[in-house]
Every structure is written in C-alpha cells, then in structure tokens.
Design brief:
The complex is a heterodimer of chains A (234) and B (528). In chain A, 43% of the residues lie in helices and 21% in strands. Chain A has 234 residues and is an alpha/beta fold. Chain A has a five-stranded parallel β-sheet with strand order 2-1-3-4-5, sandwiched between helices. In chain A, β4, α4 and β5 form a beta-alpha-beta unit. Chain A has two domains: 118 residues, 3-Layer(aba) Sandwich (Rossmann fold); 98 residues, Arc Repressor Mutant, subunit A. Chain A is built from nine helices and twelve strands. Chain B folds into four domains: 129 residues, no CATH class; 110 residues, Beta-Lactamase, CATH 3.30.450; 53 residues; 151 residues, Histidine kinase-like ATPase, C-terminal domain (Heat Shock Protein 90). By secondary structure, chain B is α+β, with helices and mostly antiparallel strands. In chain B, α5 runs parallel beside α8 and α6 runs antiparallel to α8. The chains are: A alpha/beta (234), B alpha+beta (528). At the A-B interface, α6 and α9 of A face α10, β6, α11 and α13 of B.
C-alpha cells in the first residue's frame, strides 16, 4: 500500500484492550483512532471516514450491535466486531446487524490482522461483490466458467454443490451465516424449515472433493453455530 | 377385601321387573315356610309323634325371623297360628276359637318379634362394621397413594385421584382465598372437566370457615368439602362429589374428613421434604463453592504466575534477551493464557449446566464436521502429540449441538494432553452403534485409570491420582458429562488393556433427517 496506511476506527472502552489493539494495528501499518463510546464512534465514523471499524459489543453508553446497525445504515467500510460475548446467537446478531466479521476475545494478533486483511480486500472489490474466482493453495475456482481445479485436475460438482460453492466464493474469507446459505441455495422456504443438515450434507460432499483431508478441512471451515467460511489464506 | 351388603347391590343391579319380584319374595318365602312346617308337623304326627306341631312352627318362625324382614316374619307367625289351630288343635279343621289358640298366637308373635328385632340389630351392626371396613380400606388406599407422592403437586394430584376413588366419585383440591372467597382449582379430576361446579365452590367456601366437613346436596349428587389447611389467607379444601346414595346420604363424609387429615399430613411432609432438599442443595453448593475456591486459587494462579513472570521478564530485560528466548517467553504467555481462557470457558459452562441454563440446540450434523473443527485446533490442544482422527465419512447424521459437543471433544483432548507423555499418540474414533446411536472414543497412551477413578473423574473438581503436574480445575470432564447427558447420552472412562485410557461417549439418534432434494450427479461443465 502506498501513502499512509488504512485508517482503523477502534471502538473500545477498555483502555488496556484499546492500547493493545492500537499497538497491533500500528505495527501492521494501520493508522488508528480510538473512541470509547458508541456516540463518539458514530460521530468519528462520520467525520474521519475510516477504512475499517473495530467495534466492541460491550460499550458503556449503548449496545455495540446498535452501533453496528447505525454505522451500516450509511457506511460502506467493513465492520469487524471484537467481543468477549462468545455465544453463537451474539455472533449471528452482530453479522445480521451488518458486521462483516466477528472475532471473539481473547484472540491472537495474527488472527486479528488476517481478518482485517480479508475485510479490506473485500471492501476494495466494491459493493457488487461478484467475485468470480477463488484461489488458495492448489485450489482454483472459476465461478463464471464453472471450473474447479485441484492440484491441476478438474473436479466435478453437482448443481447444488456449485450453487453452494459459488455463494462461498462470493464471500471468500468471510463467514456466511448458515441461514443465508440455506436461502441462497435452497430458497426462502428451506431457511424457515430448519433443514440445516442439507447444508452440512453438501458441505461434507464439497469437502470430500476439495480438501486433502475432509475431516480436517483447510479451506471450507465451520464456524460452529454460525455458518461457514471459505478461507482464502491458510 | 371389599364386602358390599348383598341386598342393596341386588336392587341397584336389577332392571325394571326384578324389583317387584324382589319385593314379593319375602312374603312368599314366609308363606312357603309355613306350608313346609305344616307338612312336616303333619308327617311327624302320623309317624307317632303327637303334639310336636307347635315346636315345628316355632322353629320355622325363628328361621323366618332370622332371614326375612320383620313384616314378613310377623305374617309367617300369623299364618303359623292359623295353621296350627286349624290343622292340629282339636276340634280339627276349625278356625281358632280356643283360649289356648290365643296363647299360642301370643307366643308365636312374640318369638317372631324378638328374633327379628335381634336380627335387625345384628344386621345394623354388621352393616356399620362393613361400612367402617370399607372406609378404612378406602383411607388405606388414600394413605398409600399419598405416601408415594413426594412433591406438593404430586400430593395434590394423588389426593384428587385417590380420594375420588375412595368416595366413589370425583375429588379435587381447591384453593380458597379467604378474604375474597375466590375458589381456584389446584387439581382436576382425571377426566378434565370445566372446573369446580357452583355447589363445589360454595361447599369449599363454607368449609374454609368450619372445622367439620360441609355437606351440600346438588341435584342427584352429594358434595362434601373438608378443609385441609389454612395458611396466610388462603385455605386448601378437599372437595368430593358423589352420586347420592339413598340409604346413606352422608356416606362420603367420614371418609372425606379422615382423608383431609391425611392430605394435610402429606402436604406438610412434602413441604418439609422440600425444605430439606433445598438445605441439601445449599450445602452441596457451599461445598462445591469452597472446592472451587481452593482449585481456582491454585489452578488460576499457576498459569497467571507464568504469564506475569514471563511478561515482567520481557518488559524488564527484553532488549538484552536473544531473539529466540524472547519468542519463547511470548509463546509461554500465549500458551498459559490459552489455558486460562479454556478454564474460564469450562467454569462458565459448568455454571450454566448447573443452573440448567444450557439450551441444547440439536441439529442433524455429520460427526466428521464436529471432529474436524476440533482437530483443526489440535496443535494448541495437544502440543507435541500426534492426533489420529478415525471418523468414517459414511456415519449417519447425528442430532447434536455442534458447539457443545465440540467442547466435549476439546475437553477430552485437553484431558489427554495433561495425562500423557509428550509424543504419545491420541486417537479420536467414532463408530455407529446400530441405527440408534454413535459412539465416540478418545484414546490415549497415558497412565490409564484405576477402577475407582472411572466414575470419580467426571465429578467436578477432581484431579487425577498423581497430584503434581496436573492442570485444569478438574472441571473439563464434569462439563463433558453434563453436555453428553443433556444430549441424552452417556459417558464413561476406562483403562485400555494395552495401556492408556479411553473416554467413550454415546449420542443417541432418534428418527431420521428429511433427505435434501434430489441433485443431478454432475454439473454440466463449461461456461454457463
């Protein structure tokens, strides 16, 4: 990246955590601006136009989820939720409110930076988000041409597997909610029917075709209780 | 042991024509007895035994009076007087006119009266004894039903059922607000009806104020109410409704009065038992809490000591330390912090499991996926120990909460890590156990388990037998058990015959998931 690094708005009321985040981000070339309240977060996001926002859910003045929702209402920059609330429903709620990703405290510095990279790369690709290719390791997917190659050989997918993979490729690097996958692949009805196992059956099938060790997937990983993520960096 | 007096049952059971026959029967029997007596006396006289006729008649009168209603017995006696005078007293075949005939008449009638009143009194006594026996039997049944009830709702339900059976009708326990007189049902009769009738409500209200049970007639039924207990402005009343018995309209009264006393005792017993249970839970919680504090002070401080030591060392001397050593210290902090994090996770899980706050969100899952998610973290969970995953990809889907079962596997792996030498292999294996369950095993090559440890390891705050070198508050396996049980499964541990330990849990499979819509075997290739 040329010029000053991307600006990260850190919304965190714990001074120690805020300092740590600033330190980690600073070492990776980010400029950081720290606010401790939801009110300040909204004000600073409007005036400073950050490239990415990190939001802690436990803020003193208002719920972080509300902050995410308020930001998402007008802001395009990726939002990463960083919270000690580790319950799956909290993660789903944050993603629903418009967060791009979710990181549970405690986390490692490497993981935080990797998630930020993914979020920024996504934002750089623009809002249309129709990314047609995916490459990681020896895996190459071209959605446009309906082509999957693994280690140089073609992989054949069924139509449903294709639909599923296409959705994951479009959101590569991001967690996709189980509900959203169900809706996009099997339609609105499936989303309401509680047939999450359709998804798991096809994910298992995809893994057998895409992964070296399907039982210990490297690319198509499960976010327990939340959804799936197609990892684009190991 | 239940004895009903034969007569009432017969009248109750008979149809339209039979009661008339039954009403005529005693009179006919009396007449027949006298005809028979006359015949016998006639035969005796002709067999050379003159003067025996009055004796034969007396016997017949006594027998009749003992068996028949008083009026029939008196008719028999009169017939005997006439027959005796007509057939046996000279002048024969003439109607009684002699003074001795009047004397005979007096004796016969007196015998009939005395015997039949004695019999009737005996019958009354026997009847009473019979009713008492039935009451005692009914109350015994009530007492037994109440004895089996442990909690208050059980007592109330058992009381309604058993008392209903005892009075031969229905019964219920109602609550009456003394100030407002509002009656609310606490237990309904078995055939769920519309709730207490107006008569039942009125009887219940009356009974709250009275020591003795209250009786009310309500059409063809009798409503009886007896107060069970009265506390803090509300009274509990036992209300029973029975078909009205013509002979004993107050029949249910004594049973209900005694039953109310039994219910009162049972409720009191349930209340005391509940208090005792609460006290027991409290003392167990107290014990657990002090065990927790002991453990926490040790198990949280050990990793904290490492973190603090390494961090201060890095801060003070970091600049002068070789790069490799700095990294090693930082990694040490990372590892111990990781352990602390899992410890806190288990403490939270244990609290939530204890409080019953864990909601098991079962969904049909391939076990492969759950095991895979855990295996992905094997480097941190099992440092320096190779993990072998043996999960067939054709295992059936299992209804489970992926997040919780993942925690079970994580805890089992962490347990293996703390009880096995570095470099030893750990295996996660899953197999179908018939169509209704899967078995998941975590096998290690550690020191194994003594027989008395097999159960004990799953108790909270237990540690393995060799005290030193053990980490974790001994919560991990307790959490495993809690989660597996919440899934309806079982968990156990034992030593492997060739060394090491195996932790095994089963997850039940009920029903089958709906199959996803059909999919073509292959997608058409090339540009869409």
């Amino acid at each position: 990246m040329t010029g000053p690094g991307p600006l990260a708005l850190v919304v965190e009321d714990e001074p120690a955590m805020a300092r740590l985040l600033a330190s980690i981000l600073g070492s990776a070339g980010y400029r950081t601006f720290v606010v401790a309240t939801g009110r300040d977060a909204l004000a600073q996001a409007a005036t400073r136009a950050p490239d990415v926002v990190l939001v802690d859910l436990g803020l003193p003045d208002r719920d972080g989820i509300d902050v995410v929702r308020a930001l998402r209402a007008w802001m395009r920059a990726p939002i990463l939720v960083v919270s000690a609330r580790g319950q799956e429903q909290d993660k789903v709620a944050a993603l629903d409110a418009g967060a791009d990703d979710y990181l549970t405290k405690p986390f490692g510095a490497g993981e935080l930076l990797a998630r930020l990279r993914v979020a920024l790369r996504h934002a750089a690709r623009g809002p249309s988000g129709d990314v047609a290719t995916f490459a990681a390791g020896d895996l190459h997917v071209d959605v446009e041409r309906r082509e999957v190659r693994r280690g140089g050989t073609d992989v054949h997918l069924t139509p449903t597997e294709w639909k599923l993979l296409a959705v994951l490729v479009r959101h590569a690097g991001h967690v996709v909610l189980q509900r959203d996958l169900l809706r996009e692949v099997w339609g609105k009805a499936a989303e309401a029917q509680g047939v999450g196992h359709y998804l798991r059956i096809y994910v298992a099938a995809l893994r057998r075709k895409l992964e070296d060790e399907p039982a210990q997937p490297r690319w198509l990983v499960t976010e327990p209780g939340v959804g799936y993520r197609l990892r684009d960096e190991a | 042991m239940r004895r009903d007096p034969p007569a009432p049952r017969e009248t109750r059971a008979s149809g339209g024509a039979r009661p008339r026959a039954a009403a005529v029967a005693p009179w006919a029997a009396a007449a027949a007895a006298m005809v028979a007596a006359t015949a016998l006396a006639w035969a005796a006289e002709h067999a050379g035994l003159p003067g025996t006729a009055p004796l034969v008649y007396v016997v017949a009168i006594v027998l009749g009076a003992a068996r028949l209603p008083q009026r029939a017995a008196l008719l028999g006696a009169m017939l005997a007087v006439v027959a005796n005078a007509y057939v046996f007293v000279p002048p024969r075949f003439a109607f009684p006119t002699q003074p001795q005939d009047f004397f005979t008449a007096t004796v016969f009638l007196a015998v009939a009266l005395v015997v039949s009143s004695l019999t009737s009194r005996l019958r009354t006594v026997a009847d009473l004894a019979d009713r008492r026996a039935r009451h005692a039997e009914a109350l015994r049944a009530v007492a037994q039903a109440l004895g089996d009830a442990e909690h208050e709702p059980d007592v109330v339900r058992a009381a309604a059922e058993a008392v209903g059976a005892a009075v031969g009708g229905t019964a219920r326990v109602v609550r009456v607000d003394v100030a407002s007189g509002v009656v609310s049902p606490e237990s309904a009769p078995a055939d769920a009806d519309a709730g207490p009738t107006d008569a039942e409500r009125a009887a219940a209200r009356d009974a709250t104020a009275s020591r003795a049970p209250v009786v009310r007639a309500d059409g063809a039924t009798t409503v009886v109410a007896a107060r069970v207990a009265r506390r803090e402005g509300t009274a509990r009343v036992l209300v029973a409704r029975t078909p009205r018995a013509a002979a004993h309209p107050d029949e249910p009264l004594p049973v209900l009065e005694s039953a109310a006393a039994l219910v009162r005792e049972a409720l009191e017993r349930a209340r005391l038992a509940e208090l005792a249970r609460r006290a027991e839970v409290e003392s167990r919680t107290e014990r657990t809490r002090s065990a927790l504090l002991r453990s926490v002070s040790h198990d949280l401080r050990t990793p904290l000591a490492v973190v603090l030591g390494a961090a201060t060392h890095l801060a003070d001397r970091g600049a002068s330390l070789p790069e490799a050593q700095r990294t090693a210290l930082a990694r040490e902090i990372e590892r111990e912090a990781d352990r602390l994090n899992r410890l806190v996770g288990n403490l939270l899980s244990m609290t939530r499991l204890d409080a019953g706050a864990v909601r098991v969100a079962k969904e049909w899952q391939p076990l492969e996926e759950v095991v895979g998610a855990v295996a992905a973290r094997a480097d941190r969970l099992l440092p320096g120990r190779p993990l072998v995953v043996d999960v067939p990809s054709d295992l059936p889907l299992v209804p489970l909460d992926a997040v919780l079962v993942e925690q079970v596997l994580i805890n089992l792996l962490e347990n293996a890590a703390t009880h096995t030498p570095a470099g030893s292999e750990v295996v996660v294996r899953a197999r179908a156990a018939g169509p209704t369950a899967v078995v998941v095993e975590v096998l290690d090559r550690g020191s194994g388990l003594a027989p008395d440890e097999r159960e004990a390891v799953f108790e909270p705050f237990r540690r393995g037998r060799d005290g030193e070198g053990r980490k974790g508050v001994g919560l991990g396996l307790a959490v495993c058990r809690g989660i597996v049980q919440a899934h309806g499964g079982t968990i156990s541990a034992e030593s492997r015959p060739d060394g090491g330990a195996v932790f095994r849990f089963t997850l039940p499979i009920e029903g089958a998931p709906p199959a996803p819509p059909m999919d073509a075997p292959d997608a058409p290739r090339g540009p869409a």
